[in-house]
Amino acid sequence: MTAMGAGMVPIKFLAPTPSLVHLCKDRPRHRLPPLSTLSPARHCPGGRERGRAGAGAALPRRGSPAPVPRRVPVRVGPAGQGCGEPPGTRSNLLLHYEEAGGVGVLLTGWTQDGGACQVWEQPSYRQRLNQSEVVSCLPDGSTAGVVFQKAGAWYLAVAATYSTSADTSHLHCEPSKSDKETVITVRRMVTLKSEEELGIIKRREEPLHFVDALQWGDHLFFPYYTLKARLGNNTEPPSMAVLSLMPLSEGGPTLKGHVYLDCGCRSLIISSSLVRQGERGWWVGVFRHSHNAKAWNSTAVCIFGMEEMKEQACASPHFNMNGNSCEAQSIKKLPTLIHSGLVAVYGTVVLNRIVLFLGTDDGQLLKAILNEDMKSNCPEVLYEIEEETSIFPKLRLDPVNNNYIYLPSANKVRRIPVANCSRFASEQECLSAKDPYCGWCSFNQRCTFKENCTHSNSINGWYNISHAPDKDLKILLSFPAKYQVVVTANVGKILTFCMIKIVTAVEIFYENVVLKNSSCFCNLTTLMITDNDCLVLEASLSSSSWNITQTFQLKNCSRCIHKGECASCEWIRVSPVTTCQDDCSATASKGITTVQKTEHISIQSIEPLWISTLGKSEITVKGENFTRASGIKLILTGITGCKPDIIKVRNVLNDTQMTFALPPTRKEAKSICIQANGKKCSPPMTLHYVSLPSCSRITPNTSWISGGRKITTTGRNFNVVDSVIISDDQRSNLTVSRCPGNASEYHYLTPSLSHATEGKVVDMMLKVDTTFIPCVKLHYHPDPVFINYQLHTELDPDLELKIYKENDNLNISKTEVEVYLSYMTGAQTKKIWFSVQNITKKPDRSTILCKFKREGTDKIDFSTVKVFVKLGNFEHEVKPTSSHIYLYVLILLPIVVGVIIAAFIVTRYKSKELTRKQSQQLELLEYEIRKEIREGFAELQMDELDVVDSFGTVPFLDYKHFALRTFFPESGGFASIFSEEMPQSRDQTSKDESFNMLHALICNKNFLVTLIHTLEKQKNFSVKDRCLFASFLTIALQTKLVYLTHILEVLTRDLMEQSSNVQPKLLLRRTESVVEKLLTNWMSVCLSGFLRETIGEPFYLLVTTLNQRINKGPVDAITCKALYTLNEDWLLWQVSEFKTVTVNIIFEKIPENESGDASQTIPVNVLDCDTIGQAKEKSLQAFFNKNGFLYGLQLDEIGLELVSEEQQRELLDIDGSSEVMEDGIRKLNTIGHYEISNGATIKVFKKKANTRSDVDYSDEHCHLILPDSEANKDVKGAGHKGKQKFKVKEMYLTKLLSTKVAIHSVVEKLFRSIWSLPNNKAPVAIKYFFDFLDAQAESKKITDPDVVHIWKTNSLPLRFWVNILKNPQFVFDIKKTSHIDGCLSVIAQAFMDAFSLAEQTLGKEAPTNKLLYAKDIPLYKKEVKAYYKAIRDLPPLTTAEVEEFLAQESKKHENEFNEKVALSEIYKYIVKYYDEIVSKLERERGFEEVQKQLQQVKALFDEKKKCKWH
């Protein structure tokens, strides 16, 4: 396992939604189960390897293989930061290992707290340790680590960039001076502190960047490079530091030295992997040139032997070393693979073959297989990410099923098969491919993984490459005579075919081949080379049972070929990917700045150098002497096919220009050179093949019909676009002009659609060579209409011009508008160009404000003024405001009088008609009211009870998050700072002394009580401060609950003394003192176990049942009001008639669903008034109910498509067919809108990635509540088309009662689980505190039993249970909607009424939430009194029993909270009121020693503040 290098960012993983979500403004965001319910593999990435763990994110184990690609769900978010991730920080180290007994341990490093490192124990995720200044805290600082075991103990070796030469003081993570040069440390896992005896290795002047950390035997290896290597002019190769793990008795871990790693003069290491092949070990690294320009050979893979590096490691100029004077060594390796953009590598061994998985910066996953000579085959592309996001530097195989590899990129982790065996159709193809993962399954007669083959373990059941007839076959070369080469196989067999291909830097040609039994030879009569040339020969042999092709590289073979003297001739087998690339001078040219010459022609430029994977019908080469050359060819080389493409010149235009046609290929950067006259190629340049361009957004997305508007389209790979085409249904394609842009933006001007009189939508397409690619749609609207203008000249010499225009949908900006004024001076026309200041929009019109500052003495003849507005191609003269308004009034006055007379006559006639219609409507109203009341009564008597039978695992929050939400219900900012322990520092004693003394001071009961009373007497010590102080105190004393309980007793007695003379019944009623909040927190701590074990399940059943009941009837998608509810404020009374529609939903098989089988059809009940979004929710819930697992896609990732014989139609909430009301508000589409009937078939499909998902519905949309319903509470639809029924809210109040009846059994089960005594035992905390209250009443001689009853009610139900009942999100990992909150408020009110002693007298006008449970309250009150009596009658608890319970609770919650932060917050209050506190202590007796301690605490904190790092 290897290190997670710097530059890694935390991955945001997507998780499926477990239940229905309403498309409402306050709809809940569902999360995964809390930390306590997640298995360690599902929550934190981790991997297993015997005896060691490397730095890096080994990916999650899975219980079963999953389809591909899939998303790995990992818990994130406020309900529990994944793996202890603090907000706003980055993780730079993630290690997993297993101790004896299978105990999993996870180590995480973060950039916070000077580079904190945390140790977590699995599966409980209990934090063992939190130590600061272990890893790098710099944003771009590197960290690499490895965990290893030595002599039974576990150690962490970590290499990190703690400091750089740059100024990082603003980051507040500067190490101390003594640690500034530290780069490698070895630490014990029990403390994570650096120790001299374990090894602290420091660098010299130059900062270093570490890529990985590896263990091989008793040595550790750290690949790294100097930070200056990132500069383009640096030539120093990267290095491997080697650390010897000597026993402590022999000096401990010792730096042996370093060795330079030369991989074609590349100076950076990007990724690395350790491959273990039996007793041998290989280190595989991805190297990169330091220059930023992406070239065909920017990156390369080189492989180094672990033993070789260990043996050659020597003194290093980068580290401070003693007693080692040897000279630093360098190991040079030829690249195994060359590529333009490799960023990740992972190596493994399968059937004794090394397999490399490689990630690229454009989202490709490549696989290369090495032969026994460590030469690579031609890599294949296993997977391509559609978004082309870069792969992260770490790849990992699935530890459960090694036939899959995890591919991390951007915000997803995909699970990809390691081979595509099914592409091989025959046994010979399958075995000749030499893929160790694939074999021929004789039973199924196909090429498969072994696990996918039936009877694979039987004899001859599954053949792999070890059974291939050519598994040990090799080709041998010899040169028997001048100009001759002989090719033979090492296995004597008669050949049926032989081909010898000579590939040199000059050209490719074939020779006449003579075949003789088991060998063949050819004459090299035309070959002319020198000793400096690199000759590449490719030989292919075939027999009746095998065929083989191998590539050879020949060096210094000139005398051998020409004269037969072959002593110095060297030939080696090479990969076709890396031939002749061992020279540093073979780097790609960054650009053509000088003329590149062959012997007779010169090349100046090749255009374009960026083309699509479709190829290019014409590229232009510019240079000199083209007409005098012969045999001009273009040689294109890349890893696609691993053989160069030789392209003959297409057309020599003249002596300086010629053209070629390039073939299609997959995306990659290839080397390109021009060769002529049989001479060498020109120096190579880089030709980039990229995927087809795609569009993501268009701004703006509208244009006026006259055109000329500048449009910006964003996307990718626009640099291969030839032109933009606008296509409509009436005219042929229009090519638009392009403005300067780049690869991610395309700018152009819209063409004119003068033939279109109204707005229309046109298609924008991208033309790439001869292919048209759909991009986006562009909306054309009519040209803007300008009403008139006003010219203000009174500000002479300034002119102010206001132009008024009609409102439209063009969203014109001021930069698009040009305004000028023309006037006559004699016979000459002059123009003034105005500056557009702003454009303001009002409901009736828009105003364009323009200004011009005149210079000089020119006078304007305003009688000749004309004003023009220009937008793109549209130019229009604006007319001035008319001055003939009075004339218009005189003309219109007689007409108005006539209209009034006619209206009076018509009104009298219509009044009679209105009287007649009103009588008819009253009859209809009476009928409707009777009908609604009868239906409500029938439903109440006949409706079945809807109780959830099974709801799966209850998603409890862990204790930490439950406690923080109850301690800080409205102070979300405080919850996060208590998530972790205060990190320990290297100087533990000095930094902790202040906290230890403060803690000791707080543990002085007399001081703490005096402190609280003193604070409460301060006027500006607000109620909020009192609550916060009580919560800080609870956290600080979390592990001393016995002491905290004593404090609670004292403060409660003091509170009773304060209130006894006023109103004893008001005791503990409000939260206005520290003790009242302290009591709430104490109850939360002590009753958390009882809440989880006894109350949790019925409470979650209530929330689930309530949600199900709400969803049974219509729910308005905009307001979330529902027909079935408990709260009158959330009652949807405006609903029309509805009916249930049963549709057949087809769920296709998707890769995201690992548990699903083939496609399946599920009947789903929806309502005809449901929106499409609500129908999607119910469909996903039906799939989950039937299968027991989620579909695999989130709600906003799926769409619905109506399947019929005529056509397939996508169903949308808003589309072109949506109903538009008279006031412009659009009504959401429903099932009824699409006229979907019973038995209809609807298919679920996956939306495209760039499709907008959630629609944020605004006031411009409506669903069941029409726009005027809220304004006119009694009449619905008065202003809309069609006849609407009369609606009265009170007609639907029976729906509240039916909902209450439906959930009544669940509510009662919850109530009785709270006020019952299981096994005749009360929770210790309740029994203890109730007995305490009884004792206090007796001591104060309070004889009124009502007072004690109220005390108990205020301390438990009011202070704790009501808080829980109204806030299920405190207990469960769910989000509470506003609707659920309203319903739970009604239930909580009924709960508190049961504890009230006052008799309720309710009238007919009482609120419905009181009336709903009016008949149940008397019974509940009897049960509550019996509950109180039963607790009082129980035997009293002994002091030992109470203290034992509190001690167990304290121990259970050790290390849960950051107690030091709580102490810091308490100290802030102490220092704020320090003078008052000291004054109080001075007035009291016996506090002299406490005063000294307080002064010492203040002095320590003041000193700490001075010494704090900045």
How does this structure look, described?
The structure is a single chain. By secondary structure, this protein is of the alpha+beta class. The protein contains 25 helices and 71 strands. It has a 7-stranded antiparallel sheet, with no helix packed on it. Strands 10, 11, 12, 13, 14 and 18 form a 6-stranded mixed sheet that branches. The chain has a 5-stranded antiparallel sheet with strand order 1-6-7-8-9, with no helix packed on it. α19 packs across α21. It is globular. The protein starts with 39 loop residues before the first helix and ends with a helix. The N terminus is likely disordered.
Which secondary structure elements does this structure contain, and how are they paired or packed?
Blueprint lengths: L39 H4 L8 E3 L36 E8 L5 E7 L6 E6 L3 E6 L11 E8 L2 E8 L21 E7 L11 E3 L5 E3 L3 E3 L2 E8 L12 E6 L9 E9 L5 E10 L2 E9 L10 E7 H7 L16 E4 L4 E3 L2 E9 L2 E8 L3 E6 L10 E5 L11 E2 L6 E6 L2 E6 L9 H6 L6 E3 L4 E3 L13 E2 L11 E4 L5 E6 L7 E8 L3 E3 L2 E4 L2 E5 L10 E9 L4 E9 L2 H6 L6 E5 L21 E2 L4 E6 L2 E3 L3 E9 L8 E5 L7 E4 L2 E2 L4 E6 L5 E8 L9 E6 L3 E6 L2 E3 L5 E7 L6 E5 L6 E3 L1 E5 L2 E5 L10 E9 L2 E11 L4 E7 L5 E8 L12 E8 L2 E14 L4 E8 L12 E6 L2 E5 L6 H58 L16 H9 L4 H6 L10 H15 L2 H12 L6 H14 L4 H19 L14 H13 L1 H25 L27 E8 L12 E8 L4 H16 ...
Parallel strand pairs: 14-18, 41-48, 50-57, 65-70, 69-71
Antiparallel strand pairs: 1-6, 2-3, 3-4, 4-5, 6-7, 7-8, 8-9, 10-12, 11-12, 12-13, 13-14, 15-16, 16-17, 17-19, 20-21, 21-22, 22-23, 24-25, 25-26, 27-28, 27-29, 30-31, 31-35, 32-33, 32-36, 34-35, 36-37, 37-38, 39-40, 40-42, 42-46, 43-44, 43-47, 45-46, 47-48, 49-51, 51-55, 52-53, 52-56, 54-55, ...
